[in-house]
Each structure stands twice: as C-alpha cells, then as structure tokens.
Amino acid sequence: MVDVAELAGVSQATVSLVLNGVANARISRATRRRVLESAEALNYRRGKAHPVPEGRQRVIGLFLDEVSTTPFAAQFIEGARDEAALQDVSVAVFCTRSDPALEQAAIDLLVAQKTIGIVYASLMTRQVTVPEAFSELPLVLLNCFEKKLRYPSVVPGDVVGGYTATRALLKAGHRRIAHMAGEYFVEAAVDREKGYRQAMAEAGVAIDEDLVQQGGWSIRAGRERAAALLALPNPPTAIFCFNDRMAIGCYEAARKLGMAIPQDLSIMGFDNEDLAANMDPPLSTVILPHDEMARWAVAELLDSYSGADQDERLQKVKFECELVERDSIAALRE
C-alpha cells in the first residue's frame, strides 16, 4: 500500500478508502482512477486472506459504549463484520458502556489471545479520551476522536450533511426554511445546524431565528417543535429535521393541521433510518454512513501491520453524508 500511495501521489488513508470501495469518502473521480491505475501497475490486490503477523489470532475486538439507545449499533457491527470477513477475520463485540472495569476485562482477554487489535466505537459522534489501557493493542476510533490525535479515527461529515440537506430545500425554491435542531450537547446537532446556517448564508437568505427550534431527537420532540413552528404568524414552508424520528413527528403535526406533504410543507430528515423509505410520502433524508465507516475502521486496523507510516495514519477522516431524494420535498408554490 505504501508503494501505491507514493505512485498515485496520495496518502495511504486515501488508498485504503479507494481500494476498500468506500463510496461516501470525499475523493474525486480523478483521484480514485489514479489510485486504481497505480494499484494495477504495481499488481497490488487486496486479497481475502489479509496478511496477519505470525502468532496473531484472526480476531478484532469491537468496543461499543451502548447498543440500545440508537439503531446504529447494528450498522457498526455489520460493517465491521463484513469487512473483516473479506480478510478471513472474525469480530468479537463488547458492549462496555464505557465502564473501565468491563473495558479492562475485555482488553485483557484480547491481549491474552494475541488478537489483531481494537475498534473503539461511540454511538454518538463525540470527542473522547481513550484510556491508556487500550495502548496494549493497535487501535482505531470509530465515530469518535481525540483532541490530540493518537489514533486513526473516522467520523461522519455532519456539517456538509446539514449543508446538503438545506441546499436541497433551497433548490426547491424555499426561503422560509426552519431547522429543528437536536440537543446542543450532541456534536452532530451543532454541526448539522452549522451546515444549515452556511447554506442559508451562501444563498443570501437571512435566517429568522424563530424558525430554529432546539431540543430533542424523538418523535414526540419533532411533533411538539413542528406544532410550534406551524403556529407562527408566518410559518415555514419547509423544515429540516435533526433526524428522521423528528421528521415523523413533523409529519404528524402537519397532518393534524390538515396540511399535505409535500404540497403544503416540505420536510427533510437526516440519518436514513430504514423507516424513512416507508413513510408516506417517503422521506427525503441524508445518509449517515455508519456501515462504511466501520468497514474503513477495520481495514485501517488491518493495515496497521503493513509497515505504513504511523505518523501518516494519525488522522481524522470524515465520510460524506449523501442526499437521498424521495418524495417529501416539492417546489415552493407561488
């Protein structure tokens, strides 16, 4: 991989993203083509049997801080499992709730078994301080990062995602666009609102601060915030919701007032939960690429044994959150 990166004139992380087929990584077509051509010229192939140092068990530990508070744990587990399986490696999942004793017990087990390493994941995107105990094995951070980069990390590009969602509403002609934000202690909520504000500013549209409703992530919160927005003397014509669950509540509030979606109100979600495609009408939303992020984390962990430059590996990679256009957005009626 080092030779491919040098020939293509890119980082080893970029080579890893391209050769692992990560579609949401923000890499241009020209760069992807250059990496693939360089790999071809060097006869480089990512085989199913990824080389693992002699004496290492073909096992990776996936640490999750929680599995029940969001639907995203399954995406982390499936993405990590699928990528590891391509290399004939198994994934052992540990739900520790960040409990130091549980984490140490799991680390001791993985070290004793001489496993490949650890993927340390957080269900909410956030800054973390990784306990020193994790230094006993190679480590990659998934959906979290440290202030001081000690380990490779991957997170979603929530700012760009919020920008993309808002741009879709602006392109449909809407100018009174509300944003139902999440709780501000959640980094994703802050970043998605930042993207919303950037898109509005770029379009030259002044934001009516009454249209920015903060607080919540649930269906109930969405229903309550939407009801408040739609009761304003000059209500919004479109609403960008922090997540798909708040969008469900938004649908309910609009229909209680006899409003049709998208004819009377356009709605944009975020996360692309399974339920979004089955709403009536199907919800336009933005993909949260947890599956592909987990794949990248496993590939990066395996590549830590390839002789890659360790300083170059210490970076925070952001994955693009792509727009999924369905039927909940309509052009603004004159």
Description:
By secondary structure, this protein is an alpha/beta fold. The chain folds into 3 domains: 2-41, no CATH class; 57-156 and 290-319, Rossmann fold; 158-288, 3-Layer(aba) Sandwich (Rossmann fold). Helix content is 38%, strand content 18%. The protein is built from 11 helices and 12 strands. The longest helix is centred in the middle third of the chain and has 16 residues, at 187-202. The N and C termini lie far apart (56 Å). The model has no long low-confidence stretch (mean pLDDT 90).
Please report the number of helical segments: 11
**Secondary structure category:** alpha/beta
Could you please say which CATH topology of the largest domain applies here? Rossmann fold
Unreliable runs: none
- Assign the CATH architecture of the largest domain: 3-Layer(aba) Sandwich
Order of helices and strands: HHHEHEHEEEHEHEHEHEEHHEE
Q: End-to-end span in angstroms?
A: 56 Å
How many discrete domains? 3
Q: What is the top-level CATH class of the largest domain?
A: Alpha Beta
Question: What is the subunit organization of this protein?
Answer: single chain
* Rg from Cα: 22 Å
Average pLDDT, all residues:
90
Spatial strand arrangement across the major sheet: 2-1-3-4-5-11
Please report which band the strand proportion falls in: under 5%, 5-15%, 15-25%, 25-35%, 35-45% or over 45%: 15-25%
Please report the total strand number as a whole number.
12
What coarse outline follows from CA principal-axis ratios? globular
Q: Any key phrases for this structure?
A:
four-stranded parallel sheet, six-stranded parallel sheet, 38% helix
